[in-house]
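Lab notebook page, bench 4
Experiment: in silico fold of construct C2
Operator: M.H.
Input chain length: 780 residues
Purpose: comparison with the prior construct
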Amino acid sequence: MRTDTADALQGLAARRRQLIESLKSQPRGLSWCEEHTNLIDQAVQTMFSADRIAVIAVGGYGRRELAPFSDIDLTVVPEEDGAPEIDDAIRQLFQDLHEGFNTIFGMEIAYAYRLVADAPGLDAKTRTGLLDSRLVAGSPQVFRALQDALEESFSPGEFIIEKIEERERMFAKFHDTPLVVEPHLKEGAGGLRCFHCSNWIRTAIGEREARPHAGYNSVVQMRNLAHAVAGKQADLLSRQRQAEIAERLGIDPFEMMSAQARNAESVHRRYRRAVEKLCEARFSLSRGCLAVQGEARVLPGSDAGEAAYGISIATRLGLRVSDLPSATGTQVSGAAAAAALCQGEKTIRNIDRSGLLDGLLPELARCRTLMPRDSVHAYTVFEHSLRVVRALREAPAWLAPLHDGLSEPEALYLAALIHDVGKLEDEERHAEIGAELARGIAAKWQLSPSIADDLVWLVANHLETAHILRFRDLAAPETALEFAKVVGIQRRLDMLALLHFADVASVADGIWTSAQGASLRELHEKTSALLASEIVPLDPSTQRKRLMSELGASDASPEEVQAFVSSLPVHYLNSTPFDLVRLHIGMVASARAASATVEVYQRHDLGATDFTVCCLDMPGLLSEILGTFYALDLRVQAIRACTTAGEPVALDVFTVNFGGRAVPSATAAEASRLLKQVATRAASAEKIMQAHGKDPSRTQRVLSYRYIAGLPGILEVRAPRGRGLPFRLARWVAQHGWNIQSARLGQWAENASAALYLTQADGSELPADTVESAMRERAV
């Protein structure tokens, strides 16, 4: 950092300290936040002057509501990725931001590195921050391009659901009424987030945002005071902090908190009113479904799968579903339809009410009045099947985590609906016949290979658990061994246990007994023990300290840090905190000694886990790693692939989840073991996938693609949702002998998107006609 820049920042930091101190005698709300935000804007602008990069404020900083000790949230967007002059500018900005804010200001800075091409795959949390974005420095053209891309790919229904469910989670975590003695000023009911969420909902349904009112300003003022008095970020207004604030202001703490409760009530009313407006507004639920004055209507000629997905959103929002005949087109987006059916019985009955179910699953519709030949059954095959879906959500306590842990529940829910459709032809052979029908449905819906295989397997084997429980001695060791050979892997064991319970419990009232539950649990536990890994992972924080010690990472000099940073691509800098850089230096040194390192870091706040893999680079390494994740049913959220200059060492970070949550410790340990094997060529992803019931030769369906030539070139791909996309794309690239310099992956609504940054094997530019020719083969 230049001396004049550092001096200017020192002056701004001193002004900030004075501004915070002034709160203690002259408390203010939004006007103070705006003054504070403007000061931080000046600091960012002092450090940055390039014109091909947009530096964007997001979240509270973007709203100009920066509290005294809030984090500074920035998003950096380049005009193009990989241009040397842009990379140099971002690298310098990265270093200056850390030195300026962390060292001089003593503030936390959080930033993301995004491309305009990333917009379709951004999740709801990231989109929310960008809704409140504004340009702080750099290129207005790049900023507008990002806004246009976000608007084009925006799915209002999905976004609203995410925001309402997020509010409900926070209400459960903190408090669901503003009338509390110790309020959380940001996330609790009546906190600032209620007002923010009300405006996000308004934006999603096409209404103008509401202006901040006096009650909101008062809550902001109280939060500013809480931060200033505590000298740190403090959003929970405890009794002790209330007393400190009241004493400084010279007022009665009980009167102060009564006023706070009134203000919080006014904020919370704004949120409730925004939710109520969903029953008055007209907005898109999906590409095939519209909400009109509280009613969901299927659009004529729409894709039946996307329309069903819209009905699922309407159901979750509590909207009415029109029972007018649905004249949909012939196309069915199977991924969207399967995702809709996973929302449960109420959604499925609404899909049936709208007339969509007959077209989506005519095999099930033909069973509507089919009477069972077994006298124990109390319902028709159709009604029984819908009640099986209901029972999946009502499983006993020990089964519930198995349901919640499924990374792809689509196969289980589809199997619940169609497991008995074979009874139309032959009661005795209905499992075999149903499996053939399931195979046809999977092909028609173009389901991912993993979901299709699980669906067919579940329908074909849905009677196996009952057979074992009826005809085998659970105390005999060979019984669990026999069942383990049937299921093969833990995921199928879990799904089969859930399906067995739901199937039996839905035959008639009272049919499921505690004795049956005990037997099923015993069988499941014994079989799990045979399938489970014996590896016990270390606590993530302990693991990181151990690695730092073993690798000698803490001994790196400032010169070594600088050289290391200069050897890596710019997106590494924008995704790696400084405290990890030294650890990664040690990992790279170990890799050059032919030793692979896998670091696991649980990110429970994001519902995900980071796997950092460091080893000598080799052709096809990325596809080997991604194939390992795919084999273990882990969903890849993001890939930050880096290769050092000079002797090539891969330093790749993969953010993955299991069923929307962090990867369980035993699974994480198994993944680490297998990743070390593929990184050192001791095992291949192909063998690992085959051992876990995956077909490594399956191809990937591609909905659309675009290639942007350059160095590197960017291949943008849109495809149906599914875990196998990252692996199959990386495998396809490796088969063509190209290099992936970096990659990004996202999922939003019904689709997945990926951006691959490609070069020739020698690092030269990959021509557009070469990529176009390969894509036309569609053997992805």
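Observations: The chain is about 55% helix and 15% strand. The longest strand covers residues 739-748.
Next step: discuss at group meeting.
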